[in-house]
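Q: Predict the assembly, please.
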Amino acid sequence: MTVRKNQANLSATEKRRFVDALLELKRSGRYDTFVTTHNGFIMSDTDSGSRVGHRSPSFLPWHRRFLIEFEQALQSVDPSVALPYWDWTADRTTASSLWAADFMGGTGRARDGQVLDGPFAFGAGNWPVNIRVDGRTYLRRALGSGGRPLPTRAETDSVLAMATYDMPPWNSASDGFRNHLEGWRGVNLHNRIHIWVGGQMATGVSPNDPVFWLHHAFVDKLWSDWQARHPGAAYLPAAGTPNVVDLRGTMRPWNDVTPADLLDHTAHYTFDSAA
Amino acid sequence: MSGSGLTRRRALGAAAITLSATALATVASAASRPDRGEHDAARHGGGPQQFDEIFKGRRIKGKPHGGSHHHGVGYAVFVDGKELHVMQNADGSWISVVNHYETFSTPRAVARAAVLELQGAALVPLARA
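A: Predicted assembly structure:
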């Protein structure tokens, strides 16, 4: 059974095996297909039109399915690997072990944002950025340079307290849990982390940075934590909503899975701890 | 540059549910950027104005544009002649493919943010899904 652990508690061996599996997916070309898929959705999901992966109720089940697929790809390389999660309410600084050279590597240099250490540094030769929006082929970051700190536990709890999953107009203007977690409204959780990391993480090709998966694994855990706090609250909308994936509507690009199929994560994995 | 969108978002609060004249006026009054004239133009009809300027050594242009692949935005932005994929949010704010999780008040502001992010690099065409 796959157990997703807090990245801060991984052993040296677990970190090495996770990194090695990432590098193998990259080498084989499979990694970049995930970057392409994500960017395709982020560019086509619009507030006034069809929206599946982002700015819509299915943001959470879509990313849950996307991460399951990615985790299965990792496990095809090394069956012992599970996606770790980054609790950015706890590991809030650039000094976190998350950013050490034996794991994600650190921030980019000032001149061009290039990450210079760790397994994904361009100089190591194993992490070319192929799916990109500009000419730069090296992984970039600017950790914390945006000026706004990562969300606090209290800010995160304030969003977990919201009892309604999502609300009309089911987009970036919505009130409710999903849009506050996504960050288009309110204290801003998920979006803020992308901006805080900077580099490719702030762009449509954000999965070029492996920390994408650790960030989204924690966003996914927060959905699970929210369900535990609000056991009577359901995914919304239930049915008949134009441009939006209803509870039993199928999601692109898989076309064989619905939000209803993904509400219970324990069919696929468990977490090392509850909220 | 990253704080301005967030500040404006807080200022918008619950009022900015739709792209209404009220919401745009709120954006304009809350924005600290020197481009609030564009909001006034939008508020009085027709969407954001054209622009064409050199910013940090890059030529940035924005103009109304037809064609369905702009998500009905009806507006296109270019950096040194290469198109920057932009999108408008329901509250009237803008994002681009190089600043996709941070909102800006106008197409010109999102173009300037892209220039800062690019640090001299050229945009490349990207296949759409």
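The mean pLDDT of chain B is 71. The CA atoms of residues 60 and 79 of chain B lie 5 Å apart.
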